[in-house]
Amino acid sequence: MNLKNILARENRVIFISICVVLMASMIIVIGQSIVQSERQAITTPMSAASLPLLPEESGVFRLADQALFYLESAKEQGTRTLSIYYQRRAFNGAPPVIPHEVADEASFGGNTCLQCHENGGFVPKFNTYAPLTPHPELLSCRQCHVPIHTQNLFKPTTWRTVAPPTINRSAMAGSPPQIPHGLQMRENCLACHGGPGSVKEIRTPHPDRTNCRQCHGMAESNEVWVRPLVSENK
Amino acid sequence: MNRRDMLKHMVAVAAMSTASALFPGIVFPNSQFENFISEESLTWKKSPCRFCGTGCGLLIGLSKGRAVAVKGDPASPVNRGLCCVKGYHSVMALYAKDRLTKPLIRKNGQLVETTMQEALDLVAQKMKETIDKNGKDSVAIYGSGQWAVPDGYVASKFMKGGIGSNNLECNARLCMASAVTGFMTTFGVDEPMGCYEDIDHADVYIMWGNNMAEMHPVLFSRMLDNQMRRGAKIIDFATRTTRTSMASDKSILFKPQTDLAVANAIAYELIRNGWLNESFIKRHTTFKKGKTNIGYGLEDKFAFTDEPKEASFEEYKKFLEDYKPEIVEKVSGVPAKDIRFLAALYGDPNKKVTSFWCMGMNQHTRGTWIQNLVYNIHLLTGKISTPGNSPFSLTGQPSACGTAREVGCFTHRLPHGEVTSEHDRQHAADIWKIPVEKIPAKPTYHTVEMFRALDRGEIRFMWIQVTNPMVTMPKLKRYRDATKKEDRFIVVSDVYPTPTTDIADVILPSAMWIEREGMFGNSERRTQHFEQMVDPPGECISDAWAMIEVARRLGYKDLFPWDKSNHVQEIWKEYSLFHQGLDHQMATYEALKSNPGVMWPCPDGKETKWRFHSKYDPAAKGGSWDFYGKPNGKAWIWIRPYEPAAEIPDDEYPFWLNTGRVLEHWHSGSMTRRIPVLHQAVPESYAEINPDDAKELGVRHGDKIRLTSRRGTIIIKASINERGVPPQGMVFVPFFDESLLINELTLDAFCPISRQPDYKKCAIKVEKA
Amino acid sequence: MPVKSYLAYPADGKRDELTRSLQKLPGCEIIPSENTDVIVLITDTPDAEAEKSLEEQLQSMESIKFLTLVSGYEEDPMPG
């Protein structure tokens, strides 16, 4: 065995050991970065406090991008009337029932209900425009909305509720009418007052003006303000 | 107005005035609506929902003395403004036409109307006669987790402090007794350590046999929100495919009863992979083992007492050798890789895990064991009592925690502690100002045994309140026949006619929910107050007041000195004396009135979100965890084996029968079926059957099938590929329908430790009808 | 062109069903009472024949317990 061979063998050993060191360091570096990235993924979830609490403002401008389309399609008449709107609710503000067959009893919003009720549009099967949900972020639709399988009652009821608000509620001729209902889960005005799926009687003639509450105030109280007496002011 | 409108107006006015003459007091809507500006002008008052144990905060719209609308209370941390279809329509349950408004007494087989005074006189007289003739343990009160706190408290004081009998039970025994014994055996004190806020912190939710999408829909929506916004994972671990499975990231099916084996297999994997929190285990846990082959309670007077013995980690490790995933796969049908997947979720130190369960683990002949085993997993990994790390036992009734558990409406309980403890009896006697000897030290009958005692004749008088056992008892026929036996006197307090009022000798009409003042306590230790918002109809009174009236007639005036106008406040003050101290301090009456619920313990008015950790819980000592319910502050890790169900499908009865609820109906349906929307959505019960089984039987959706067990039979419509799909060999039937009583078929086997029956497992056969 | 008013009383538990079916009928308007089951029904038909067929439809409704005519006008078509 000559020296050259010995050297070559030594070289090989050195080469192999360098490779081993490199591989080991690579494993350490990659491993650390994986651990690091996992840790980051774990430590950066949105904090509990930042989750929205059904605020009255969060969805206000959703659908604003549809406004011009609604303006153009204003001529297209949806068939929904105010009387149908109220028939589907046990009281003003109650979740409406589902007036049609549902495709899948076990499904969740994104797969079924929201296909029509998130963005709307004409549904040939029912020959009408789909009404929009004002809260498409809630996916468990069937939690509150149920289809009706019989018109009969288990027992008759004496339930009654207050009459729904009247329309054309302007303080003066031509002034913008007040909002007669709460905004919880219904803060997106265009969903119910905008497109062709909306109710005829309460459809806005100007869906392109999307900052609705600029002009339409809430009717929170039916009292007028009276300046308190000085003695009460103390 | 044109001429034609004018004519219409005239004929309408004529018709309305004719109607007014025919029906005095008739009201037609005023077309001008002068007084009605908006829904915001109604009076809105807060109340917890009447239905499930979630305890959603509602705002109830009131007009002219009636409840007319509901919306979710945005200020409530429970539901943050969202309800479910039952909650939104809950107030309609007050107004069905067949509401019981007058007391009824059975005379010659017929129920006849009487006055409240006479009815209460009769109840008191019968109670006294029965005690004189057969002893004080021949009378019993059977209440409910729907009792408001004052009702349960009056019942306990009346029975245990007045009459001196432990014959007090409630339907919560059928609903969450195993949850209680699970907490007691592992931690030494009852009720969850965490709260609903865990949902917003957890990375993974594991649902143990829990169809939350239908049963706790508001909490499920909160999970969906977290799933959508920050990628939290929902894992469904169940015996049938449900809506919850559809929304979950992964659904794993197991064979009934084998959750015990899978839980042990997860623990095995945790140890094998070294996914343990060893310092936590060393400092905060200790190992125990109990009796095995503990029976099913099928025979009368069945008795069982567990004997905890010391065990070691080595012993535990050796015990788990029998639960290797490959072995458990054969028993449970859960692939070993899925068991490893579950173990990896629990074992990942970077993941916060919350487990949820309800009736799947509670209504289980080894209900206490399975709770112990799930706690084991959380204890081995130290994932407990910190935000997002929570083994979370949910409840099904609005005050199962608040009344049944906290007031202690069970034979062995007192408002604080147990009758077997001299210290606890003395404590109660001091508050009630009675001699301690008055309170008997020995528990009498748990619910199933109480109805058996009624059958045998040891109990002759039973007062049933806010519950419908003639729909909900397992093996129903035996217990229905018991109530009809000669010389049994049954008083029923309820709001509507039910199969239970059908067997009553006296029916007392109750004021329900917001027709009286009260408190409910929900699953997360939150006590919620509701005031009286509307007048009860007719002669209805609250169950608390009915019991006070009867107790006074029996000579216990001193125990119930309160005035009708402020008795709820006085009761709350007295009851709070039982829970003094850092570990269970209740909120003041004033705090309850002004808050959308307060979580106990709340010493100095500060509520506790996570118990057993000194960072969150003022009762916990040391720098970290302190399981102060147990000696040395150490929680118990239990060695509990898999044991089979009481009745297993065989050649003759080849199907499992599983029973439960649907989203639209609550319990026996006596309220929800009278809410038009809910009845119209689900008008009758049905039997879910696997499509392959249906094909084999030649049954199509909607066809009638006959279900038969060794105890009874019903004919019911088959439901195929609808809301839920059971695996082959299982049938699922909701129990809300009083004309399709599925409990004629169920078995009265129960967990020997909790004495809670198993409504999820018995054997039946299925035939085309 | 007859305009008539009736008092309608629904069969037990069928108030909502009756309300709904009456609203669907052409030429029918209703004023349901707030606190009883009584419904005031106003019919507006173009001619006697339509009036008769509407009456027949009303009679055949299962959700009606009884129906009684209160008042009515027979209006002659305006000349021209």
Question: Can you tell me about this structure?
Answer:
The complex is a heterotrimer of chains A (234), B (769) and C (80). Chain A has 234 residues and is mainly alpha-helical. Chain A contains 6 helices and 2 strands; from the N terminus they run ααααββαα. Chain A has a two-stranded antiparallel sheet. Chain A is elongated. Chain A starts with a helix and ends with a helix. With 769 residues, chain B is an alpha/beta fold. Helices cover 33% and strands 17% of the residues of chain B. Chain B has 27 helices and 27 strands. In chain B, α4 runs parallel beside α17, α10 packs across α14 (336-347) and α19 packs across α21. The mean pLDDT of chain C is 83. A 4-stranded antiparallel sheet of chain C has the order 2-3-1-4, covered by helices on one side. Chain C has a single domain, classed as Alpha-Beta Plaits (2-Layer Sandwich), CATH 3.30.70. Chain C is of the alpha+beta class. Classes of the chains: A mainly alpha (234), B alpha/beta (769), C alpha+beta (80). Chain A binds chain C through residues 83, 87, 151-158, 160, and chain C through 12-17, 19-20, 23, 34-35, 37.
Helices and strands, with pairings:
The complex is a heterotrimer of chains A (234), B (769) and C (80).
Chain A: H1 3-43, H2 67-72, H3 82-87, H4 113-117, E1 122-123, E2 128-129, H5 189-193, H6 230-233
Antiparallel strand pairs in A: 1-2
Chain B: H1 3-22, E1 43-48, E2 57-63, E3 66-72, H2 85-88, E4 104-107, E5 110-113, H3 116-134, E6 139-143, H4 149-163, E7 168-170, H5 177-187, H6 198-201, E8 204-208, H7 212-215, H8 217-230, E9 233-238, H9 243-247, E10 250-253, H10 259-272, H11 278-284, E11 285-289, E12 309-311, H12 313-320, H13 325-332, H14 336-347, E13 353-357, H15 359-362, H16 367-380, E14 390-393, H17 400-408, H18 422-432, H19 447-456, E15 461-465, H20 469-472, H21 476-484, E16 489-494, H22 499-502, E17 506-509, E18 518-521, E19 526-530, H23 543-553, H24 567-576, H25 589-594, E20 598-599, E21 635-639, E22 655-660, H26 676-681, E23 687-689, H27 691-697, E24 704-708, E25 713-719, E26 730-734, E27 762-768
Parallel strand pairs in B: 6-7, 6-15, 8-9, 8-13, 9-10, 11-21, 13-14, 15-16, 16-17, 22-26, 23-25
Antiparallel strand pairs in B: 1-2, 2-3, 4-5, 4-17, 11-12, 18-19, 19-20, 22-27, 23-26, 24-25, 24-27
Chain C: E1 2-10, H1 15-24, E2 28-32, E3 39-44, H2 48-59, E4 64-74
Antiparallel strand pairs in C: 1-3, 1-4, 2-3
